[in-house]
Write a structure and sequence with these properties.
It contains 9 helices and 4 strands, in the order ββααααααααββα. It is 53% helix and 11% strand. It is globular. The N and C termini lie far apart (41 Å). The protein is mainly α. Helix 5 crosses helix 6. Bound molecules: zinc ion. The site of zinc ion has 4 residues, from helix 6. The site of zinc ion (ZN) has 4 residues, from helix 6.
Amino acid sequence: MKNGINTFGKKNFTGAFSVPAAVVNDLALLASLDARGLRDGLVEAVKVSLLKDPVFFANLEKDSTLLAAGNIPAIGRAVRRSAELHARHIAGNGDPFELGSARPLDLGHWAAHKLESMTNHRLTHGEAVAVGLALDLICARELGLFGQAETERSLNLLVALGFKIYAPEMHLDGGAPMLAGLEEFREHLGGQLTLVLPTAIGKSTQVHEMPSAVVRKAADELRARDQQPCVARS
Ligand SMILES: [Zn+2]
């Protein structure tokens, strides 16, 4: 269990870890969430499926209409599989305290953390992760790691679930504040940058460099897509 305190203007900047005896996912709690809150959690399911489980990813695609409509049984299936994959990751990696430099479930999160603070939390965590995922996926494609078709499938799934994949704040002051988020993430990891990026749906690798030109190009592409929402894409 991670407990975070918002400090220095950043979400969960300081905090403590404690290993829980058990984690309870009570689907009845979903009834207390509004549509935005229900959708918010789905982005972490997309994230973990992209890194670990192509069948789960395909199931999210198949269920996307139900998920976007807040269908509780469909959301329950996503919660269950997400929990299994996260639990297996933590058990398999043996690093529940995130002491190592590798934090391989952080896909999409460096930009998300920055966008949450840059937007004064106009974007929820999930909404910011959706934008951050889209950015990381296009960066992975630009780096030659992730295929064009897989990138389109992934972006389409985020959109089908009701997420926007661009935030105008990405281009604030020429993109410099967002890029500062990459540097902050490097410092947060103790000096060496480690980003997890997909190499296929369900498979990933780690990179230790992310050229700012690649991030800028990806942000430009997301803005162009946002300005032409009606263009059909294969
Ligand atoms: Zn997250």
